[in-house]
């Protein structure tokens, strides 16, 4: 990745729209601007101009915006050409930029340059992509908070506290002969405890943000005809899957994303599991099995009128260990008496009685799901839009801090103690990108859309 050349891309989505934008960034954009718009537009002022191709033919007319370095998105000179948003116009405009000396930008390259030019740190750069990708309003709000630096600030506070502590501990190491106490045992304890508490809070907010970003995968599993597809439709609020009274209706796995309190839930409706000779149904059941592997929660549906049968137990026994499970007793509208809530398939399972037909019990099921994934209703406001990379770094920092705390009780291994603090700090700094390998940058920015 070179930093000095001029890059260009269509920044608006493909297809037709009122306005389309071609964005150009790099050094010495004046000559490119002269070729395309015939002048260097006044900085940061909207100029109505004509856009021309390499032969001087008019392609479109629109607004040109010129941002001199370093006050631009990338920190370089940036030219934004806003034309009519049709694919042909946009392609001609982009081609004109390319023939005037730009090259096509790679995905995320504008934001990569912004990062390299210290316009934003790595966590903020990632939140740009998260904001664009946000599928719920809560996720978008969470991403904008990270983009504005709330997550990075929380990390900086932790890093600063660790740095201060390390300075004192390392001074004690350097002057160990001289009987000077740089930090008392009591103060050390207080500071460590405070750090632990702060880190725990950041981790908890990051976990909430991660739920908003990633959502959770939930498989609906059970015997044929128990109402899996009906429950999917009820939760989705629309007729996504075919429902009939014929057992074996669903064959392919149906994926539908729903949102509860802003948390995206990926529901997977599957083919009912039973002994069968039907070749297509067998294939559907094989898909059910591989779908279960993708899910972290299984809703095992049973018919509440029949209760739990040996077939249901066989399905339960075939589920991979470690999966979180809710047993959903469906069709309560057909029950003649109150459901027998002492019936349970296994100790400590969560059982819920619902009617996919009338909607009874569905609110409770939604609440149980949110509790199971650890969603805290009021947490959305303070959540940080965290990725797996951030959670891993925070957890690593926590492990090193715990190790440091364990060593702090005797302090006869001060070097090891200091090293654990250093490693905790390193893990935290990787979040904001103070020490990032090129391959990590490549991995992060290649997932962006082109033009951002
Ligand atoms: N009364 C009543 N009927 C229901 C309820 N849920 C599902 N049904 C009916 O049960 C039958 C089977 O429903 P489906 O949702 O297709 O069942 P499924 O588990 O997806 O079945 P397969 O796709 O064959 O595995 C249909 O006739 C539904 O209308 C419910 O809560 N109450
Ligand atoms: Mg079905």
Automatic annotation (TrEMBL):
Gene3D superfamilies tied to this protein: P-loop containing nucleotide triphosphate hydrolases, Probable tRNA modification gtpase trme, domain 1, tRNA modification GTPase MnmE domain 2
Record-listed GTP binding positions: 225-230, 244-250, 269-272
Residue stretches making up the TrmE-type G domain: 215-374
Essential cofactor(s): K(+)
Primary location group: cytoplasm
GO cellular component, one term: cytosol
Residues the record lists as binding Mg(2+): 229, 250
UniProt: K(+) binding residues: 225, 244, 246, 249
EC code(s) of this entry: 3.6.-.-
Entry note: cofactor: Binds 1 potassium ion per subunit.
GO molecular function: GTP binding; GTPase activity; metal ion binding
InterPro entries named in the record: G_TrmE (IPR031168), GTP-bd (IPR006073), GTP-bd_TrmE_N (IPR018948), GTPase_MnmE (IPR004520), MnmE_dom2 (IPR027368), MnmE_helical (IPR025867), P-loop_NTPase (IPR027417), Small_GTP-bd (IPR005225)
Record-level GO BP terms: tRNA methylation; tRNA wobble uridine modification
Compartment(s): Cytoplasm
Residue sites binding (6S)-5-formyl-5,6,7,8-tetrahydrofolate per the record: 23, 80, 119, 452
Keywords assigned by UniProt, alphabetized: Cytoplasm, GTP-binding, Hydrolase, Magnesium, Metal-binding, Nucleotide-binding, Potassium, tRNA processing
Summary of the function given for this chain in its UniProt record: Exhibits a very high intrinsic GTPase hydrolysis rate. Involved in the addition of a carboxymethylaminomethyl (cmnm) group at the wobble position (U34) of certain tRNAs, forming tRNA-cmnm(5)s(2)U34.
Subunit record text: Homodimer. Heterotetramer of two MnmE and two MnmG subunits.
Similarity comment: family membership: Belongs to the TRAFAC class TrmE-Era-EngA-EngB-Septin-like GTPase superfamily. TrmE GTPase family.
Protein name, UniProt field: tRNA modification GTPase MnmE
Organism of this sequence: Nitrosospira multiformis
